[in-house]
Amino acid sequence: MDWWDKTTVKTAAGEVEVHFTPVQHWSARSLSDRRATLWGGYAMFAPDFHFYFSGDTGYSKDFTDTQVHFAARQTPELGGGFDLALIAVGAYEPRWFMKEQHVNPEEAVQIHLDLKAKRSIGIHWGTFDLTDESLDQPPKDLAIARAARGLAKEAFDVMAIGQTLKLPRRQKMP
User: Fold this and answer.
1) What is the Cα 31 distance to its own chain's centre?
2) How far is Cα 33 from Cα 174, in angstroms, rounded to an integer?
């Protein structure tokens, strides 16, 4: 897919549109093709749920572009912004090295705001010791960044291992 391309997946609950969205990262499939393919996130639209997945990303204006691109289908009358956004919050230190491909929690909060997401969950942390911050640091830094922007914990947090989260469906629009 190219950025902004979409495909439709048929499910038992109805059709789901999957859009490939731009994000900032590098790509490589072999030793000789660095930056030769697109990197992206996904915006998914089911009749009763709008979902965004950032994947690995550095902070860029791609997130405001994504919100603008989908704004017409996410007006308050149509249920508002993304119901859920999964946004990377880990693997960010040292900043001089990781900034272009991995957001820190402060930037992740900005992405949440740029997307106008109703709720976000921090992902991409605590599994592999990839960078200089400790495995348990991203949730602590996310709490600080969230508080600095006046966001409630329910607006953007991480999930515990094995935790289940039940989210409300949006009303199906005609």
Assistant:
1) 28
2) 46
CB 83 within 8 A of CB 49: yes
Does the N-terminal peptide bond of residue 94 adopt cis geometry, omega within 30 degrees of 0?
A: yes
3-class secondary structure, 142: helix
**How far is Cα 121 from Cα 77, in angstroms, rounded to an integer?**
25
Measure the CA–CA gap between 131 and 115, rounded to whole angstroms.
27
The helix (H) or strand (E) run that includes residue 15 is strand 14-22
pTM: 0.90
- Give the residue from 85, 90, 105, 96 showing the smallest Cα distance to 146: 105
The pLDDT tens digits for 138-154 are 999 999 999 999 999 99
Q: Which CATH superfamily is domain 6-157 in?
A: Ribonuclease Z/Hydroxyacylglutathione hydrolase-like (3.60.15.10)
Cα(172)–Cα(122) distance, integer angstroms: 27
Q: Are 26 and 5 in contact (CB under 8 A)?
A: no
For the stretch 24-35, pLDDT in tens is 776 556 677 666
